[in-house]
From TrEMBL:
It comes from the Bacteria. This is Macro domain-containing protein. InterPro entries: Macro_dom (IPR002589), Macro_dom-like (IPR043472). Residues 3-192 form the Macro domain. Keywords: Membrane, Transmembrane, Transmembrane helix. It comes from Blautia obeum. The chain crosses the membrane at residues 254-272, 293-312, 318-346, 358-380, 422-440. Pfam families: Macro.
Length: 451
């Protein structure tokens, strides 16, 4: 059996190089095969990198309109479109011939305009995926140079755009190394150019690159943006586009927006995930799994604590009870809002990458709710009924089976616990139904393919 690493020639960190300067001069000096143009949808020229490339091509061909005519000839087909026609939608990329003195190919990529929402981030990611797809499918491209797309006139914050650029290229190269070794071995360099003399941009790029370099050296998948910025983009996306694009109006829009913004209340969880994300996409997912498991254990450990320490008066201590209730409600509310977001914000958050993993985590989430409700029932019975000393297993019987001791009477406090239990069961039934429906659709599709 051949070791895959024995015929992959270099590390991803050796392929990606960040440089500063003028993209035209660098393209010529580095003798690249392709230059990525941050273009307008018409591909007929514009400002910044787009304008610089068109100006250089005009000089090389000694014709101010030659490059535009060439683009029309290669992309419009038999029917030539108007100058302002859309030849490349936002998030897409097209390739045309260039000039031997600049680059053999020009890859035109149209980035999104920044509006603070999550959709423009997804479009920018898709833009780089399409660029890399063209590079992969063009066998004589070995060296490429590209700008940080959308970070100029389209208003993307430079740090966000640069991080997406770096992560997108790294993640696509990882896919090549796994599934298309020939394409990976062909690529010698991908230069990312920091255009202009903006010292702040250069400093930020250096900081982000140094943060991401260990992940690239270890050849791990990178996280595109941190959790806080990602969550804020969901809030902006809902506020800006729900009414106009998705037809969610007053009540549904406000519910979705409040649900998205409520996640900031649980900042410790977001902070942990954000820090884990700096070490790579895989590490972040592992951190989420560990966090989910530990959250499940919190109410269970409180139950064990009160059961074993009861003889020392722990159950009668208001501070212990208050701490147990506060922490358990906190982690349960974190889980509930996260699960509600899976249902009501699925259109902007995107589907889970692995449904089986999601189902396993959902089971842990359900056990967390069961143990939490068991804890509340345990504390309620011990505080309200001094003569009724239910045990650990009686509490779990309530959480799992709904078994209530005959001496327990309905009160306002117990009614809240019961409502919470019913709501929890309904939420998890809805989520389980969604997962199984998606799985059945997938099985049906596979069966059709096999016929």
């Amino acid at each position: 059996m051949i070791d895959k690493d024995s015929f992959t020639k270099c590390n991803i960190s050796e392929i990606i190089e960040v440089i500063k300067g003028d993209i035209i001069e660098l393209a010529i000096n580095k003798k690249v095969d392709a230059i990525v143009n941050a273009a307008k949808p018409s591909l007929m020229g514009g400002n910044g990198v787009d304008g610089a490339i068109h100006e250089k091509m005009s000089k090389l061909y000694n014709d101010s309109n030659y490059f535009n005519k060439q683009i029309k000839r290669e992309l419009d087909g038999e029917k030539e479109l108007a100058d302002n026609a859309v030849r490349c939608k936002r998030g897409e990329a097209k390739i045309t011939n260039g000039h031997i003195e600049l680059a053999r190919y020009i890859i035109h990529a149209v980035g999104p305009k920044y509006d603070g929402g999550s959709e423009c981030i997804h479009v920018l990611q898709r833009c780089y995926e399409n660029i890399m797809k063209i590079i992969e499918e063009t066998p004589d491209i070995e060296k490429v140079i590209m700008p940080v797309i959308s970070s100029g006139n389209y208003g993307f914050p430079f740090t966000t755009a640069f991080r997406i650029t770096l992560a997108s290229i790294n993640n696509q190269l990882l896919k090549w190394k796994e599934h298309n070794v020939d394409a990976f071995n062909r690529i010698k360099k991908i230069y990312i150019v920091i255009y202009g003399e903006n010292s702040a941009a250069i400093d930020n790029a250096l900081r982000i690159y140094e943060e991401c370099e260990p992940v690239m050296q270890q050849e791990k998948r990178m996280v595109y943006i941190n959790g806080f910025r990602s969550q804020w983009s969901y809030c902006r996306e809902i506020w800006k586009n729900d009414s106009d694009k998705r037809y969610y109006f007053t009540i549904s829009k406000m519910f979705r927006w409040l649900l998205a913004i409520s996640r900031f209340v649980f900042f410790p969880s977001m902070f942990v995930r954000n820090q884990a994300g700096k070490k790579g996409w895989k590490f972040r997912r592992e951190a989420i799994e560990i966090e989910t498991f530990l959250k499940m254990l919190i109410p269970l450990m409180w139950l064990v604590f009160f059961e074993t320490q009861g003889k020392y008066g722990a159950i009668e201590n208001i501070y212990w009870r208050g701490m147990a209730i506060f922490i358990t409600i906190w982690v349960m509310a974190d889980t509930v809002t996260c699960l509600l977001a899976l249902i009501f914000l699925a259109d902007i958050q995107g589907p889970s990458a692995n449904q089986l993993r999601s189902l396993i985590l959902l089971i842990f989430n359900y056990l967390e709710m069961v143990f939490g409700l068991s804890l509340f029932y345990y504390l309620y019975c011990h505080c309200e009924y001094t003569e009724l000393k239910i045990g650990f297993w009686n509490a779990l019987d309530y959480g799992v089976l709904g078994a209530v001791h005959s001496a327990v009477k309905i009160s306002s406090t117990f009614r809240i616990i019961e409502y919470a239990k019913s709501g929890t069961n309904f939420l998890f039934m809805a989520l389980a139904f969604g997962f199984f429906s998606a799985h059945l659709k997938q099985r049906s599709y596979l069966s059709d393919m096999e016929k």
